[in-house]
């Protein structure tokens, strides 16, 4: 949900990098990122969680389907690191499996959301005219739709199908605010000399968008994708919590938390481990997103840059309008 | 301290300083301006209305196609004969064999007469809607007030004390809260409350439903309501304060470095007075839209809180109606949400148009 700060600040420094080039810039960014201790910490945590989620299950001999008839709802012990469930399943293996799902869904869903936003926003902004009007109206309609509700309604239709469909749906309801930002940036970029030069040389529009427009807002897109990871994971776990997302026999952190909430006071490990891992993932992603923003948009935290932009922001994208996303 | 006349109208240099004035203060061109504003707002209103209609319609069609109300009757014991099921489905405009656009037409026709249709179990959707809106409103009233005031105060305080220990601690706390899904937070709060109740041997924290229905006397019932209100309110307020304070902090930092604040200091105001008289007021304007949307959309955004603490409000209905394949109820919730977005958009636009002349392009 740090999408809030981001959505607001994304717009600003994003146009900056056009002068810097190649490897020098990359190294500069790395140095800036590494200077932010929390961001570095977040990155390390994500890598560790990733390793734990995929390699962890091999460290214990329990399998996902194993049932330990000697241990029903036992507390964490050397045999069962995270305890066992009511049916004698190993909680550690379950939690790691859920973490795999959440991480993969987030890492696919975030960039996918950004890709849709980049496509729609840049096409609308670059082509203008009726294409722009239709796309903007489409964005508005999508914003009015109760996304959580519609995803929940659609959940029976992807029962038994691959969870990838679920990721696509999550992305399909999350791209709108970013698309608006991309659109407004595109509108400023398309009058810059290098874009005009390309156009007068006869470079076709799709190529201009891919070669000249989008690379010039790479920092915005990178940050947006990072925040999208956290947003997607939150959406996924929330829907799964209600049984609208990942379906059994598959597990996600959301379904585990939902199952573990019944007797939190008697069997706290059934809730605390999946919830703790979920918070750790999102927190780490948010730290990385924050660090990336500082590294890529050094001006974003500067007061003057923002105040100036707000003064000449076009009417249809007040700073406040980008906030819709947070409220949902 | 030199005397000075405080108040926004005396400081024309402050952008948007008229926060507390009535909308549209008289200007030399008062009438023309008012006309322009209302034409602008009317255009936006029309656009919003169309968007709401389209959004609600798509939601209805999707719900009508994807949900299976039949399962409610088929799962009954004893199972009613197929003819009866069909008849009940027809009566409630839920029969999946009827063409979806015919059902949509019936639904629209009902809406035009103020009828939201019938629930699967036979109740009136409209009555349920009214009752649940009331429940949600009672839950959200305190959460909104505490959350907004707390968030703005914390954000402003942190901005003034930038980089101090309190600022960094708040930043860390906000990050943690923002990264905690509401459902995890609510479950944790509930567990802590149960632990507290057990440890102290009292039942100080109450949950499940709005109040204890067995208590009928006025004051005891009010107390019971308050006890039931504490936990869900905290679960909503913490997240709101976390987000809002970050937002307010950054707008406040913008304002703190601005020229008009220096002017205010130069004319003799103390730092504290300048910040609270001019700075805070200006910094709230950008945050206001967020506040409006957040408040209005919390009606259904409190889904997790209402479900976990068992309040029969709108948010809970959003989930139970889908789980119960209750197409007409789902449609009503969707329409309500779309309407909320419309209201939130309008309220914030009116406020912006009143405060900021640049909006009326």
Care to describe what's here?
The complex is a heterodimer of chains A (328) and B (361). Chain A has helices at 3-13, 22-35, 37-59, 91-127, 129-144, 147-154, 163-172, 176-189, 193-200, 205-213, 218-241, 253-260, 269-296, 303-311, 324-327. In chain A, helix 3 (37-59) packs antiparallel against helix 13 (269-296), helix 4 runs parallel beside helix 8 and helix 11 packs antiparallel against helix 13 (269-296). The longest helix of chain A is centred in the N-terminal third of the chain and has 37 residues, at 91-127. In chain A, 52% of the residues are buried. Chain A has 328 residues and is mainly α. Chain B has 361 residues and is mostly helical. Chain B has helices at 30-66, 70-74, 82-91, 100-112, 125-160, 165-178, 182-200, 218-256, 259-266, 271-301, 303-308, 314-323, 327-355. The longest helix of chain B is centred in the middle third of the chain and has 39 residues, at 218-256. The relative contact order of chain B is 0.15. At the A-B interface, helix 1, helix 5, helix 6, helix 11 and helix 13 of A face helix 1, helix 6, helix 7, helix 8 and helix 10 of B.
Blueprint of the fold:
The complex is a heterodimer of chains A (328) and B (361).
Chain A (H helix, E strand, L loop, with lengths): L2 H11 L8 H14 L1 H23 L31 H37 L1 H16 L2 H8 L8 H10 L3 H14 L3 H8 L4 H9 L4 H24 L11 H8 L8 H28 L6 H9 L12 H4 L1
Chain B lengths: L29 H37 L3 H5 L7 H10 L8 H13 L12 H36 L4 H14 L3 H19 L17 H39 L2 H8 L4 H31 L1 H6 L5 H10 L3 H29 L6
Helix pairs in contact in B: 1-4, 1-13, 5-6, 5-8, 5-10, 6-8, 7-8, 8-10, 9-10, 10-12, 10-13, 12-13
Descriptive keywords:
A: about 325 residues; disordered N terminus; B: mainly alpha; 13 helices; about 70% helix
Summarize the structure.
Chain A has about 325 residues and is an all-alpha fold. Chain A has helices at about 5-15, 20-35, 35-60, 90-125, 130-145, 145-155, 165-170, 175-190, 195-200, 205-215, 220-240, 255-260, 270-295, 305-310, 325. Chain B has 13 helices and no strands.
């Amino acid at each position: 949900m740090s999408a809030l700060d981001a959505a607001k600040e994304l717009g600003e420094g994003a146009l900056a990098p056009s002068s810097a080039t190649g490897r020098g810039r990359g190294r500069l960014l790395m140095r800036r990122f590494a200077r932010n201790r929390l961001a570095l910490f977040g990155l390390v945590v994500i890598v560790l969680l990733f390793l734990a989620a995929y390699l962890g299950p091999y460290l214990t001999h329990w399998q996902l389907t194993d049932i330990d008839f000697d241990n029903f709802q036992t507390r964490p012990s050397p045999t069962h690191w995270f305890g066992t469930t009511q049916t004698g399943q190993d909680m550690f293996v379950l939690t790691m499996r859920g973490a795999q799902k959440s991480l993969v869904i987030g890492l696919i869903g975030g960039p996918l959301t950004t890709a849709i936003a980049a496509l729609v926003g840049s096409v609308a902004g670059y082509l203008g005219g009726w294409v722009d009007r239709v796309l903007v109206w489409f964005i508005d309609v999508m914003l009015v739709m109760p996304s959580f509700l519609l995803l929940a309604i659609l959940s029976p239709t992807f029962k038994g199908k691959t969870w990838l469909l679920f990721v696509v749906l999550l992305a399909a309801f999350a791209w709108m605010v970013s698309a608006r930002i991309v659109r407004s940036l595109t509108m400023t970029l398309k009058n810059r000399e290098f874009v005009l030069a390309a156009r007068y040389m006869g470079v076709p529009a799709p190529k201009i968008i891919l070669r000249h427009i989008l690379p010039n807002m790479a920092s915005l897109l990178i940050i947006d994708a990072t925040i999208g990871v956290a947003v997607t994971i939150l959406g996924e776990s929330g829907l799964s919590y209600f049984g609208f997302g990942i379906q059994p026999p598959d597990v996600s952190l959301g379904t585990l938390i939902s199952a573990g909430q019944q007797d939190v006071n008697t069997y706290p490990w059934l809730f605390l481990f999946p919830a703790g891992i979920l918070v750790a993932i999102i927190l780490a992603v948010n730290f990385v997103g924050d660090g990336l923003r500082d590294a890529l948009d050094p001006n974003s935290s500067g007061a003057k840059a923002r105040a100036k932009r707000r003064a000449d922001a076009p009417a249809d994208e007040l700073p406040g309008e980008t906030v819709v996303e947070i409220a949902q | 301290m030199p005397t000075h006349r405080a108040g926004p109208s005396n400081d024309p240099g402050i952008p948007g300083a008229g926060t507390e004035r009535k909308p549209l203060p008289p200007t030399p061109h008062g009438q023309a301006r008012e006309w322009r504003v209302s034409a602008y707002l009317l255009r936006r209103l029309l656009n919003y209305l169309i968007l709401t209609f389209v959004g609600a319609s798509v939601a209805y069609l999707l719900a009508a196609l994807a949900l299976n109300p039949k399962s409610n009757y088929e799962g009954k014991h004893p199972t009613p004969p197929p003819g009866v099921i069909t008849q009940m489905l027809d009566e409630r405009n839920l029969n999946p064999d009827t063409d979806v656009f015919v059902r949509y037409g019936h639904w629209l026709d009902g809406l035009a007469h103020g009828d939201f249709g019938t629930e699967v179990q036979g109740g009136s959707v409209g009555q349920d809607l009214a009752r649940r809106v009331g429940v949600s409103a009672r839950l959200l009233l305190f959460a909104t007030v505490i959350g907004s005031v707390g968030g703005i105060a914390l954000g402003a305080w942190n901005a003034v004390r930038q980089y101090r220990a309190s600022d960094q601690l708040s930043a860390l706390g906000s990050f943690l809260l923002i990264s905690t899904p509401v459902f995890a937070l609510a479950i944790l709060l509930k567990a802590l409350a149960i632990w507290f109740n057990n440890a102290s041997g009292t039942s100080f924290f109450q949950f499940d439903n709005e109040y204890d229905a067995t208590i009928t006397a006025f004051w005891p019932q009010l107390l019971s309501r308050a006890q039931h209100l504490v936990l869900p309110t905290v679960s909503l307020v913490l997240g709101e304060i976390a987000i809002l304070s970050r937002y307010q902090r950054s707008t406040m930092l913008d304002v703190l470095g601005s020229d008009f604040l220096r002017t205010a200091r130069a004319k003799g105001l103390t730092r504290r007075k300048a910040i609270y008289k001019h700075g805070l007021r200006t910094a709230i304007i950008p945050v206001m839209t967020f506040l409006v949307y957040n408040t209005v959309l919390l009606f259904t955004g409190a889904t997790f809180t209402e479900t976990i603490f068992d309040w029969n409000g709108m948010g809970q209905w959003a989930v139970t109606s889908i789980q119960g394949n209750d197409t007409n109820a789902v449609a009503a919730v969707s329409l309500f949400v779309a309407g909320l977005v419309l209201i939130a958009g309008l309220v914030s636009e009116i406020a912006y148009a009143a405060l900021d002349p640049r909006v009326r392009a």
